[in-house]
Amino acid sequence: xxxxxxxxxxxxxxxxxxxxxxxxxxxxxxxxxxxxxxxxxxxxxxxxxxxxxxxxxxxxxxxxxxxxxxxxxxxxxxxxxxxxxxxxxxxxxxxxxxxxxxxxxxxxxxxxxxxxxxxxxxxxxxxxxxxxxxxxxxxxxxxxxxxxxxxxxxxxxxxxxxxxxxxxxxxxxxxxxxxxxxxxxxxxxxxxxxxxxxxxxxxxxxxxxxxxxxxxxxxxxxxxxxxxxxxxxxxxxxxxxxxxxxxxxxxxxxxxxxxxxxxxxxxxxxxxxxxx
Amino acid sequence: xxxxxxxxxxxxxxxxxxxxxxxxxxxxxxxxxxxxxxxxxxxxxxxxxxxxxxxxxxxxxxxxxxxxxxxxxxxxxxxxxxxxxxxxxxxxxxxxxxxxxxxxxxxxxxxxxxxxxxxxxxxxxxxxxxxxxxxxxxxxxxxxxxxxxxxxxxxxxxxxxxxxxxxxxxxxxxxxxxxxxxxxxxxxxxxxxxxxxxxxxxx
Lengths: 276, 203
Hints:
The complex is a heterodimer. Chain A is an alpha/beta fold. Chain A has one domain (5-269): TIM Barrel, CATH 3.20.20.70. Chain A is built from ten helices and twelve strands. Chain A has an eight-stranded parallel β-barrel, surrounded by eight helices. By secondary structure, chain B is of the alpha/beta class. Chain B has a single domain (2-202), classed as 3-Layer(aba) Sandwich (Rossmann fold). Chain B is 27% helix and 33% strand. Chain B has helices spanning 13-21, 32-37, 49-58, 62-70, 80-83, 186-202; strands spanning 2-5, 26-29, 40-43, 75-78, 88-89, 95-96, 103-107, 116-124, 138-144, 146-150, 156-162, 164-172, 175-178. In chain B, a hairpin with a 2-residue loop joins strand 12 and strand 13. Chain B starts with a strand and ends with a helix. The mean pLDDT of chain B is 94. The chains are: A alpha/beta, B alpha/beta. The A-B interface holds A 1-5, 40, 43, 45, 70-72, 74-76, 93-98, 120-124, 191-192, 220-222, 245-246, 275 and B 10-11, 13-14, 17-18, 21, 46-48, 112-121, 139, 141-145, 161-162, 183-186, 189-190.
């Protein structure tokens, strides 16, 4: 039976692991390759490097990180952050990563997803969606995003909950409905969706289950739930109620609050299929 | 030396690093002569069937791969390297494969997420030499939307359940091919690569 995946995420800045709390207050905590090896031995199912390096000149560092990790870590590696061109993808795949996760570039130019999927295969194109619940539509100044088709825009005054897509590491609202966007990226050839709740990210009070379930039911490609994991029960919530195919977590594993093995044993006891 | 065939698609580094990690002499090659000179062939690959066949043809590798298999040299196919052994695939239209094994490559029509992505159990019907020291129903990493449907069920060495029961490994004489990715399957996968190295030495 296909196992639900537990995916630790390493936030990497200038070649060092940091853990973001709501995208600020970054703490430096080590070498990404050592961290990757640790998770490999712990039995993580996949690994994500989120490159949050700001300066363009230092962006090559992540290639070296991937190259070194691929020497010792034999599980799927995903790299996200700052991917702008097909050459960026090609370089990362050649360095030894298996998938790339794209957010801002995909929103700016949705057909980038198709071009990337056609060239490298859908299986390696993950679209990252950072979504924030829309509480009061009118109160927010609408951003004008002319490249986005009307079909993807947020619809105000609906009785259903809606979530808005954000880009640029959660700094820019895009006036795009996250559910419509998820369907669109699937149609364009994305192989997987990495879904982060902006409301929950860094809070440690649980994933946005409703968001996760809504997106997971809207598409037929796998969905990785992210943002908000603080306890093992939260992982269970995203996989059961949220119907996610995988859960991504950073701090609970990074600060060794739980081991991957503890998480899997907990989930197995709850009847979730996991690889032990 | 074992020749890992580079046909201009996908990431071969992990397969090469995997063999290196377990001390097996393998190198990436991209010309027919190097394939002819090799003791064994590994055809890895993710991507589309059509592009795989086109690239192998364009680089004149098709004939040398068939020759190598017909001479009885060990062959390890991974993912597309399994699929292209068959007669034809229905991915993006109908495309002819190497036709070394009879059968088709077909898409999942199931009520589950596609691609089939992640770790799943490999149930052995037969135990090929590459599975020495690996348990029945061991977990391996999969990522694919198509699977092989062999005409001759005798070549099926293992199956996996995902909505349906599909062929996850074939074994016929010197041919071993897996739908899953040993190079992404941690210790279990490395064990398979090491076993393949041993199998090549004994052949």
